[in-house]
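Handout, tutorial session.
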Amino acid sequence: MPDLLVNLLKLPASENNVQSDVVIRPGQPFELTPIRQFIQQNFSTSWADEVSVGFANKPVTVFIATIDGQLVGFAAYECTRRAFFGPMGVLDQVKGRGIGRSLVLACMKGLREMGYVYGIIGAAGPIEFYQKTVGAVVIENSDPGIYRDFLKTSRDK
């Protein structure tokens, strides 16, 4: 999967596209364990490891999505490499409610607030989603990128 480049100066205007029962907010340092467990159980151990870096950042560079106090999604930035977005995951049963879009925008705006002009989405999965959501463009010759030497573990999905 190729990397994508996002012009952070041309992000869409902030708009709340999630339903009223969805809360998008930064993760708090004292929430590290339940958020890591959620990511490991629903996505992968390697993503949980990456997000741990976001909790070490000051301020924390991890956003979460909740419904009635229950985690349903997350996104992080400045974890894998400087100016990188990801990982991100939203539970299948709540997809299509604007949660992923809101998480991506929150993180991209966080990168912009750090002073970056461009953000990188490493090994982007749903390329069309990122193109539509934040105007991402494919970086030529970026596959396999930084994940080429990724160690597979039996716990990763």
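The second record follows below. Compare its token runs with those of the first.
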Amino acid sequence: MSHNYKLADISNPAQVAERPRCSVPIARLYVCKEGQPEAFQNTGKPADRDRLAATRALVMERFGPRTADAPKGLNCERYILAALERWITVTCRTEDSRRCYADRMWAWVAFSGRRSLSAQTDTPARAVADWLYALESQGRSARTIVCYRETLRSWFTWLFERDLVRRSPVTRDVRRLHRIDRGAVCKANGRRQALTPGEARRTATWSLRTAPAVAGFAVLLQLTAGLRSQEVAQLERRHLVCRMVEDGERSVEVWTLTVPGKGQRTRSVRLEPVAVAAWRRYAQAGRLQGERGPLLRAPGGGHYDRRSIQRWAKSAAAVVGRRLEISSHDLRHTAATQLLEHGARMDEVQALLGHASIETTKTCYIVDARPMRTTTGITAETEAS
């Protein structure tokens, strides 16, 4: 019997009164691979037993019989209950991630009506695509839809690894529906990314030695000055000014960058030595055209677009093996975090990043805070080292 429910129909208990039954071949194959559903006991360390118990309670609340204590229960059959429990247990490590995966799977099972394990194994790619389109029609953002899609891909990959499905219905065409960078998916899941001090040092070294001069300078502007990719792309040559400042008995160069921010606001950023070195390297490459025009001049003239800046940031993240995790905006996260760890005040970091509210700086850009010094401390390895 086919069960096709809408999300609004699940509130009616009569819609889920009948408990579906898994087909005999799939049930036998599941028992062959995983054993009886009741055999998944709480074994191992106390922490593992607590995690298994919490996962089992969560699955029963979402997918078990509908009761007064579990008003959202979908009354799924026991094999899919056992499969969901094992999949969530091995996939998720925190309580928030377990609840997040359970909520997404609840939405999928409620929409598709596939409440047995055999029905899940018969899922075509078209059913997944229809669900993603339904989420889009509800006004969900593209990143949220990708999170739902990646959850389904993890679920069907788990079934494929146990020979319960021949291929995942989350095909390449389905993944093209809402193409979002994996770093954006991590942010949508609430996980903020930042380079460690060692990774930042390796990235700065790559920017000064190996990377193209323009790419290295753009990466260091984001990594040390906290600029957005769009801000880097819009910079003009007139925005960068060098002036001499008296420091005791000697004069030192101070490089200042006036950054046009959102709206009509601007902010002044002092370049750190590693960024100044990248600028001198870029200037020696012969790409400058006088004192006017774009600061980062494209080969055909004019500005680079923000996509080019973001691609260079991805190349820098690949140097430390985190290309799938780190995006262009995470270099800005790194600058804010390193500044605070080296002793900068929160209001100074807020002014550098150009935030209207200090709460944005605290909640979205600071990953860790241990006071040390007053600059990011990011340097590049010298030739001698």
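Points raised in discussion: Residues 218 and 232 are 7 Å apart (CA to CA).
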